[in-house]
């Protein structure tokens, strides 16, 4: 499996980073019902918005990034990346950092906090710090998680969520399709920029995989998550599918699992 992914993504997966979502000790009760994976149901949104003081949309890439990293170059690069994901997926969600005191995470919700936005992506500050401590292209690891969450916004826009969830006891299908979309973005970037380290997308999601098969929040095994990234990557990089084609292909892919 690892050798196949290396060939598909055009690079080594390298040393597996210790990024698994082992949540820190919780000072307060968890706000999220994890049966929804990293999608927020409407009844939970306000408690997260209350710790996300500033929201912006990134459309051109010239917008000033919300200052949280302490690194201006990183903030500029992330703003440009979010604008590229928005353009490729044809969605314009609001983006905000939030206080993930009850567990390092990132979320997507269809609730729009800004006029004209397609929902909102919330990125935990602890999650940001954890990813940026990684040894191999940490900035690309952050982009991978952002692309996954924007993938959920794409699901909301095209009303895919109910179809993916029907008859399921876990959130795996929806999460693996979001991984597929993240891989699709990585494939487009690799075409645009041949030295783009696309393998980091697979490596990041591999590390967030789990084997909690009976838990509602099960996102897919490490291999399943990396494979979804690889399939999305090839849909863009080798097969050059349009977004509408990729949505159809990604839906069929996860529905067959």
What's the SSE blueprint?
Blueprint: H1 2-9, H2 42-49, H3 72-89, E1 94-98, E2 106-109, E3 120-124, H4 125-132, H5 138-157, H6 161-165, H7 172-192, H8 199-207, H9 222-237, H10 243-255
Helix pairs in contact: 1-9, 3-5, 5-7, 5-8, 7-9, 7-10, 8-9
Describe this structure in words.
This protein has about 260 residues and is mainly α. It has 10 helices and 3 strands. The protein is about 50% helix and about 5% strand. It has one domain (about 35-255). It is globular, with a radius of gyration of 17 Å. The chain has a 3-stranded mixed beta sheet with strand order 1-3-2, sandwiched between helices. The longest helix is centred in the C-terminal third of the chain and has 21 residues, at about 170-190. The chain has helices at about 1-10, 40-50, 70-90, 125-130, 140-155, 160-165, 170-190, 200-205, 220-235, 245-255, and strands spanning about 95-100, 105-110, 120-125. About 45% of the residues are buried.
Properties at a glance:
257 residues, 3-stranded mixed beta sheet, mainly alpha, 49% helix, globular, disordered N terminus, 10 helices
């Amino acid at each position: 499996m690892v050798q196949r992914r290396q060939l598909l993504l055009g690079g080594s997966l390298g040393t597996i980073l210790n990024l698994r979502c082992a949540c820190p000790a919780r000072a307060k009760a968890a706000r999220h019902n994890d049966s929804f994976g990293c999608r927020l149901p409407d009844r939970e949104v306000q408690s997260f918005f209350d710790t996300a003081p500033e929201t912006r949309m990134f459309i051109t890439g010239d917008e000033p990034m919300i200052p949280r990293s302490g690194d201006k170059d990183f903030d500029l690069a992330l703003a440009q990346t979010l604008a590229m994901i928005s353009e490729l997926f044809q969605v314009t969600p609001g983006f905000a950092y939030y206080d993930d005191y009850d567990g390092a995470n990132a979320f997507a919700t269809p609730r729009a906090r800004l006029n004209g936005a397609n929902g909102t992506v919330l990125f935990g500050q602890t999650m940001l710090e954890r990813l940026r401590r990684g040894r191999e292209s940490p900035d690309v690891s952050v982009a991978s998680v952002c692309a996954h969450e924007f993938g959920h916004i794409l699901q909301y826009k095209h009303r895919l969520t109910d179809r993916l969830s029907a008859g399921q006891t876990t959130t795996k299908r929806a999460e693996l399709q979001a991984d597929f979309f993240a891989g699709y973005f990585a494939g487009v970037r690799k075409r645009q920029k041949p030295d783009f380290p696309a393998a980091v997308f697979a490596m990041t999601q591999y590390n967030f995989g789990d084997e909690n098969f009976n838990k509602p929040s099960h996102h897919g095994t490490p291999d399943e998550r990396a494979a979804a990234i690889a399939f999305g990557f090839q849909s863009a990089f080798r097969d050059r599918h349009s977004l509408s084609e990729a949505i159809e292909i990604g839906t069929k892919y996860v529905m067959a699992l």
